[in-house]
Design a protein that fits this description.
839 residues; alpha+beta; DNA polymerase, domain 1; Aldehyde Oxidoreductase, domain 4; 4 domains; 7-stranded mixed β-sheet; 5-stranded mixed β-sheet; 28 strands; 22% strand; binds FE2/S2 (inorganic) cluster; AldOxase/xan_DH_MoCoBD2; Molybdopterin cofactor-binding domain-containing protein
């Protein structure tokens, strides 16, 4: 066992209890958590929940929100050591809080992340990167440089790329070079790779690399990029606009004319870093004429396609093998380290690895788009929303990445979970010379919700209607049409979510009101906020299939090939739960093959809250089809309600037995196999954004309680209550974990986090919430089954984050009577707002 000291009884007890509490997601922080907590327990320092929280205050976790870890540590301190949950019986895996199936390696510290597998003798890479936001450059004679560094085997430049020196998640918009040539478009862009021995790469000073830079005036803001004399980042994109998004229905002017109240606001949100604790790392090696690329990726098959284009070879010559992923949240969807190690290995024929420094990771990886939003919302006197007029500009940085997805998704979602007859939402993704912005848990929707839900509060206040009641009056219900014209047949749980929050809303509002009467209230103001959301699961208005393979081998093993990368969210557990129930086998008897392009069919990307819904549905279909084949072979009806047992080369069913050893095996070694694909039905949007962009939508609402210190401007989040309609709970405790982790990220988005290229270079400059920043989080899971989902289930990964920041900002406004237009609402922003005259 590496990394974790389990020599003490407390250490071993913590490992078990972390597992039983589902205190583990990606697992990257867990060895550090366990060491810190074990030391505190061994010192007898933990006597309360606060002590437990203190014990891990120095260990960052970006996934969990710390709730379950703190509870686990406290339990061990109290002598309550828990073991993992029992495995569920046949047919009831779905709905059971099964301990995550891949958790043991994570608490034992033996899981293999991107850097862990790099062979000791691998060559390593140092990237030469642009020190300027925008610059031209010329590389000089490399021979003297290489001669001065005997451990350097090769310097790789753009012209060495054998295929296309370009990548991008949307192929039609692919524009990011693997290595920039002649000019760099953002600070930190790679322009050359030095490949050499690990010792050389670690210790040599490459300050003598022969390169001449000519710095140019950068375009850093949307205003810079859209100014009349702005240079173009990409010749093919006039006005530096990557793409426009648009959803229009009804007549906004007519809607506004009906209004008793109209509110409007101009909002600015910040550039937000994913801050996954594991920096990018990976390696590649040749296996004959096949290259194997190992890395923490959220998108193995799409990465294989992109690498084939870069290397100029067939996809069959590439295996993408995901390592454990130490947090992703959308940031490991794009290629980062993969083309660099693949290129060096392909050219040199040798094993090559690379580990990004923290500064390299933060400076060059994609982020949440900074947004500038103008919003206007109108309602009639009875509190019915009669018009929404929204415009959002998203700073997409130097390259396209997921800018197209953000610009297209936001207009569909800027209505919130409300019925709106007159609607106009226009967006633009604008190129600048900042780090490319990409996918980060919500594809721009959390930024839109920050604006829209604050405007909803303003409108309710203006009309003198309780803010939760105002939302209830306008929510969508089954049978209603969205602003895209799509009619939702079922699984519209927003009303249920708001009603679930109502008791806490009333109590919290009364408590805040009482607290604000106290003597301390002149300085410390309490506030309560709420925000609601809708979120389409899956890619927007496009195909996004997943394929699951299940087979039975001659030994009688039932094997599930599931290619949905588990970046901590739980697909390595949830997909087997669904498959086991569909096939009617005890979960523990199912053997699982995890994602890798040569052993699992494509399950697309782990993004867009699609894996439980899309891959889960494929698993349901594959399980049902395989069972039907088995029953057919046994001469039974496909729907026969019989118990099947497997093993020792046999399938047995109530008196009949099938000897598998005599059956022919297929190319995968299976005597019986099913492969099922599910592609959720969605239609392209027309020029006004009308159509059915998603097959299913998640709904939710969150309630935040805060205390604002009006002297310092600091905000403490006291409690968050989150209600989410998940369709059907597949694994309740994993769902809770997603919500708790999202709340932590939402606190960062609302109050703390602001990435500045070239300035915020690590966690010292870019603080994220620690265990001490976390409030109590209560999760209420609502089940409004989606008829199209597996057992009714839909996604939670992004929906859990979408309303958090808006709920907190509404609570801050409730506390101090000032609207938060600049986000994050740092102490400076709050103090500035307090100083501003009443609006
Ligand atoms: Fe803590 Fe992922 S579980 S960083």
């Amino acid at each position: 066992m590496e990394g974790v000291d389990t020599c003490t009884a407390n250490g071993a007890a913590l490992q078990d209890t972390f597992l039983s509490h589902q205190a583990v997601q990606c697992g990257f922080c867990i060895p550090g958590m366990l060491c810190a907590a074990t030391a505190a327990l061994d010192r007898d320092d933990v006597h309360s929940m606060d002590d437990a929280r203190d014990s891990i205050a120095g260990v960052l976790c970006r996934c969990t929100g710390y709730q379950k870890q703190v509870a686990a540590i406290h339990d061990v301190a109290q002598g309550r050591v828990a073991c993992r949950t029992d495995m569920p019986a046949t047919g009831v895996a779905v709905g059971t809080a099964v301990t995550r199936l891949d958790g043991l390696a994570k608490v034992q510290g033996t899981d293999s992340f991107g850097a862990d597998g790099i062979p000791i003798d691998a060559l390593m890479i140092k990237a030469i990167r642009s020190p300027f936001h925008r610059a031209r450059f010329a590389i000089g004679d490399l021979k003297p440089f290489v001669a001065r560094h005997p451990g350097v085997e090769r310097v790789i430049l753009a012209e060495d790329v054998p295929g296309l020196n370009v990548h991008g998640v949307a192929q039609a918009y692919a524009d990011q070079p693997v290595l920039a040539q002649h000019s760099a478009r953002f600070l930190g862009e790679a322009v050359a790779l030095i490949v050499g021995s690990a010792e050389t790469i670690d210790h040599d000073d490459f300050g003598d690399f022969p390169i001449q830079w000519e710095s140019q005036a950068p375009l850093l803001t949307i205003d810079d990029a859209l100014s009349a004399d702005a240079p173009l980042l990409h010749d093919a994109r006039p006005d530096n606009i990557l793409i426009h998004g648009r959803v229009v229905s009804g007549d906004v002017d007519a809607g506004l004319s009906m209004a008793a109240a109209v509110v409007e606001g101009h909002f600015q949100t910040s550039f937000v870093e994913h801050a996954y604790i594991e920096p990018e790392a990976g390696w590649a090696r040749m296996d004959g004429d096949v290259i194997e690329v190992y890395s923490p990726t959220q998108a193995p098959h799409p990465h294989r396609e992109e690498l084939a284009r870069i290397l100029g070879c067939s996809e069959h010559r590439i295996r993408v093998i995901p390592s454990a992923v130490g947090g992703g949240f959308g940031g490991k969807l794009d290629l980062t380290v993969q083309p660099l190690v693949a290129l060096a290995t392909w050219i040199l024929g040798k094993t090559v690895g690379m580990i990004f420094t923290r500064e390299e990771s933060i400076s060059t990886s994609t982020k949440r788009h900074p947004a500038t939003i103008d919003s206007r919302i109108a309602a009639t006197a009875d509190g019915t929303i009669c018009a929404i007029d929204f415009h959002g500009d998203f700073n997409t940085g130097a390259y396209a990445s997921w800018g197209t997805a953000v610009a297209n998704r936001v207009p569909v979602h800027a209505s919130g979970p409300y019925k709106v007859d007159h609607y106009r939402a226009l967006t633009r993704a604008v190129h600048t010379n900042i780090t490319p912005a990409g996918a980060f848990r919500g594809f721009g929707v959390p930024q839109a919700v920050v604006a829209q839900e604050q405007m909803i509060d303003e409108l309710a206040n203006r009309l003198g209607i309780d803010r939760l009641e105002f939302r209830l009056r306008n929510v969508l219900r089954a049978g209603d049409a969205l602003v895209t014209g799509q009619v939702l047949p079922d699984s519209v749980g927003i009303e249920a979510c708001l009603l679930a929050l109502k008791p806490r809303w009333e109590a919290a509002t009364a408590e805040a009101c009482a607290a604000n009467q106290s003597a301390a209230a002149k300085r410390l103001r309490r506030g309560v906020g709420i925000a609601a959301m809708i979120y389409g699961c899956g890619n927007t208005a496009s195909t996004n299939p997943s394929t699951i393979r299940m087979g039975i081998n001659r030994a009688g093993d039932v094997i599930l090939h599931q290619g949905a990368v588990d970046a901590g969210q739980g697909s390595n557990t949830v997909i087997p739960q669904i498959a086991a129930d569909a096939f009617c086998i005890p979960l523990q008897e199912l053997k699982c093959v995890d994602a890798a392009t040569h052993v699992t069919p494509s399950c697309g990307r782990t993004s867009a809250s699609r894996q439980t819904f899309v891959t889960g549905k494929a698993a349901l279909l594959a399980g049902q089809q395989l069972r039907a084949k088995v029953l057919n072979t046994l001469g039974q009806e496909p729907s026969a309600n019989v118990t099947l047992t497997f093993g020792n080369g046999l399938i047995a069913s109530e008196g009949s037995k099938l000897d598998l050893s005599q059956l022919p095996a297929n190319e995968f070694g299976y005597v019986m196999m099913a492969e099922a694909t599910f592609d959720p039905p969605a239609t392209p949007l027309d020029k006004d954004g009308q159509g059915s962009p998603y097959a299913v939508y998640a709904f939710g609402a969150q309630l935040a309680e805060v205390e604002v210190d009006t002297h310092t401007g600091t905000t403490r989040v006291l409690r968050v209550t989150a209600a989410h309609d998940v369709g059907r709970m597949v694994n309740p405790s994993l769902l809770e974990g997603q919500v708790e982790g999202a709340v932590a990220q939402g606190i960062g988005l609302a109050l703390m986090e602001k990435f500045v290229p070239g300035v915020t270079l690590g966690f010292r400059d870019y603080p994220i919430p620690t265990s001490l920043d976390m409030p109590r989080v209560d999760t209420i899971l609502v089940e409004e089954p989606a008829s199209i989902g597996p057992y009714g289930a839909k996604g939670i990964g992004e929906p859990a984050l979408v309303p958090t920041a808006a709920a907190i900002l509404n609570a801050v406004s409730h506390a101090i009577g000032k609207r938060m237009y600049d986000v994050p609402a740092t102490p400076e922003v709050i103090l500035r707002a307090l100083d501003a005259p009443p609006s």
